[in-house]
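Figure 2 data, in text form.
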Amino acid sequence: MRSTVTNPFVEIFDLIPSDRIYIQNAFEKITYGDVKLSISLFSQQYSYLAGKNCALITYSRFELAKILPLIASTANKIFLQPRCLKEEVEKEFYTKSCIEYVINVTDFGINATKLSDVNHAEDLEQEWLLSTSGTTGTPKLISYKLASLMKTSKKDLTKGANFKWGLCYDLNRFAGLQVYLQAIASGSSLTISESSDELSDSVKMFIDKNVNCLSATPSFWRIILMTKGSQSLNLKRITLGGEISDQTVLNSLKKHYENAHIVHIYASTEAGVGFSVKDGFAGFPLDYIGPSKSSSVELKIVNDTLWINNDSAASAILNGAIEIDIAGFINTGDIVEIQNDRVLFIGRDSGTINVGGNKVIPEEIEAILNSHPNVIQSKVFGKKNPILGMLVNAEVISENPLNIDEKKAFKKELLSFCKGKLESFKIPAIVKFVENIAVNESGKIVRNNE
């Protein structure tokens, strides 16, 4: 039996009033009391999973949220496996994390497949395993303790009764798990949309279920603001993360949701939750750099790159590697610059475009394009060129539909708009007007140089 494994996760549910809503979607509602009963029944029916290392796979965010407390009540390791892992990466992850059972969750129930047997040490603390997105290379496998994952979660059950969270992230990603853990830590409800849902349907559901707290990437927020009916969301709290929160998107959210408390959060799967910014401005105050008097997070800038030391970071990197210096600082790969008393994010070092030997950061150009009053969203990427190596390309969503002549005129206007703000080699060589810009399962813009 799993008596040697500490399980603070189940204790969270024991404290929450049984009649509160745990999760819901447009068709189903589950209370915290339902979960407590399910945990008891699950431990009897699947007793052979007690103390085992389990990979958990499902194609539904709602089904994952439904089964997660049951698996967490008994397993030793829980690998929240994303659906998109390549077979060779999956096998390597299973080996490195000593996975014993693969649990597939479908509409028809649970299918647990045994892979191996592992000799477990005594008095183990439960591990939660997450995969990085792998957008800039092979995904990494990261191990966390629950206490680190929940260190920044507010745990006031009285106030939590008034918060109703909406989930726009995949639950098996760090950002989605953070929203989930914040909801249960305070005994709040979580309304879950699926990645396959039309956003207009998700927005309608959030309105119908009185969702008042919503977290998403800046790219996803721009799409929400484009969606019919989104201004009817009665939001108390808005959080942004995963990408650069530029001033344009922050201003747009403040304009549309005047009563909402807007926070952008710096976090990553490897480094954990670093810090939050609540003053409504892009970047963060310069005095965040250096030892902190109010938190365990320390920041420094080395060669224009942000490094972070965080005691709630991952407990282990089971597969892959990250750059850590002798003092324990993690290289975030985020390029920053100091302007007056503010540190501004410029972009990711791994995503730069080489134009004739010059380094071009897509996010820097997007921030300029997005600041144009008639641009809703943009995407910048590189396209191979035999002379310059790469050319800067941009896809742009215009606020209004454009005919052919209007597109030509607006393109000239945009290029002129960029000239006073960007060096010549950074100005897009090609501008294409599109209706949609794809985001991945993490809510981030899909960036594939061509």
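Caption note: The chain has two domains: 8-333, 352-433.
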